[in-house]
Amino acid sequence: MNAAPLTSAALWSRTLAVTRHALETGALQPIATEARTVPVVGTAFQVRVLGKVALKERRRPAPSSSSEPFNPFANPEPDLVLGDVPPAHVCLLNKFNVVEHHLLLVTRAFEPQDALLTLADFDALSTCLEGLDGLAFYNAGETAGASQRHKHLQLVPPLGPERLRAPVEALLPLLPGPGHVVAAESLPFAHLLAGLGPWGAPGAGARMLAAYRLLREALGLAERAPYNLLVTRDWMLLVPRRRAEHLGVNVNALGFAGSLLVRTPEQFDAVAALGPLELLRQVAGVSP
To answer: From edge to edge, which strands make up the β-sheet containing 227-231?
Structure first.
């Protein structure tokens, strides 16, 4: 890992440099997909279909003598690391990325992926969002689409279309002020939305933490209940989860952002016929 902390100003240039190097060394192994879209009233959802090569099972680490499962974040590959993010995280590239320049913000000390987010998490996230005005997300637990047990938030560049951080942004209502939550009438699944106030104001991490706690309380989430969290500089959306998949399609936070991943063309056809919003309703529950 880099000794010097990663600053907001250096994040994007560092992302590009580490990506180039990691591709050259083979540390970064992007997953090939075919990008398609499915119309939704007011926007279009992105659906990526895995390529045939990506469907083959990748080589897994040799089993160790320990009963603990392999943790790729315990000692991340140096060629993937951008640097430390104070107070308690390290930023690295997602080794098997579908979206280009997909960043992971991992706690240096182990914490479980279904643990509550903390001020340290949001302070580190605000540093990264200052350097990349994109979409951050968190998959709280396996039911919410998490594939690793070690706590990590994720950040991707804007998904679009146009200047949107995510397709779902076109469906959101006027943002409420800090301290208030609202549901979007256009989203037929359980969720709540909070506004974060002006980005340039000090204390972005604390404002995110306050909004996160407010959303959890308003939705009545138990401490270890599974959920997905979407965060931008402007807003935060929380979606409680009741199951991991529907029609064989696993859904994580990016699905609620308007970006789904399916394994086969047949799964794409099934999602298109059902409708992406109905797919999300099936895994998240019905809006109260």
So the answer is: 81-85, 89-93, 103-107, 152-156, 135-140, 227-231, 235-240, 192-195, 181-182
Q: pLDDT tens digits, residue range 215-257? A: 999 999 999 999 999 999 999 999 999 999 999 999 999 999 9
Distance (Å, whole) CA 15 – CA 11: 6
Tens of pLDDT, residue by residue over 133-176, are 999 999 999 999 999 999 999 999 999 998 899 999 999 999 99
Tell me if 61 sits within 8 A of 186, measured CB to CB.
no
Helix (H, G, I), strand (E, B) or coil at 49: strand
Question: Residues with Cβ < 8 Å from 233, sequence gap 6 or more?
Answer: 129, 133, 196, 199, 204
CB 46 within 8 A of CB 257: no
Look up residue 1 and give its two tokens.
């890992």
Question: What is the C-alpha separation between 62 and 34, in angstroms, rounded?
Answer: 31
Question: What's residue 67's pLDDT?
Answer: 60
Q: Are 260 and 45 in contact (CB under 8 A)?
A: yes
Q: What is the DSSP letter of 162?
A: T
Residue-level pLDDT at 60: 45
Q: Which domains does the chain have, with CATH numbers?
A: 8-53+76-284 (3.30.428.70)
Tokens of 286: 């019905």
The 3-state DSSP class for residue 268 equals helix
Q: Does residue 88 register a pLDDT over 60?
A: yes
Q: How far apart are CA 17 and CA 22, in angstroms?
A: 9
Per-residue exposure over 176-187, b if at least 16 CB sit within 10 Å of its own CB, e if not: eeeeebeebeeb
Residue for token digits 């560092």? 14
